[in-house]
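Reference record:
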Amino acid sequence: MRCIALFGPGPNWQHGKTVYEQGLPIEGHLAAMRRRFDQGSLLLGGPFEGGGGIAVLDVGDEDEARRLLDSDPAVCAGVLGYELHPLLAYFDAFSAVRTTRSVSELAQRRAEG
C-alpha cells in the first residue's frame, strides 16, 4: 500500500531557522530516511521549497506507516510533525498502474472495498 506523509514543523521546531538549521533531529531524520529508502519502504521524499516536506511510502498497511513515522528521530524530538494519507493509486509509474475505469466504476470498486 502506498501512503503519503506530509511533514511540517512540530512543537519543538526552532522558528526563524531553516530545516537545515534544526540540528541533530534533522540529521537523524535524514539517516532514517536513507535506511527506509535502502530497505524499499521509502519511494520518494524530500523538503518542499518554502517549507514542509513529503515522503511516499510503500508499506504493508497504515499501521506500519505510522510505526515508521513515529520512530523518526525528528518526529520523536518534536521538530517535525506529519499528516498521513493512504493513497488509492490510479496512476503509479512505480508499479505500471494506469486506470482505464470511469469515475463511476472507481466509486463502485471503492464502495465494495
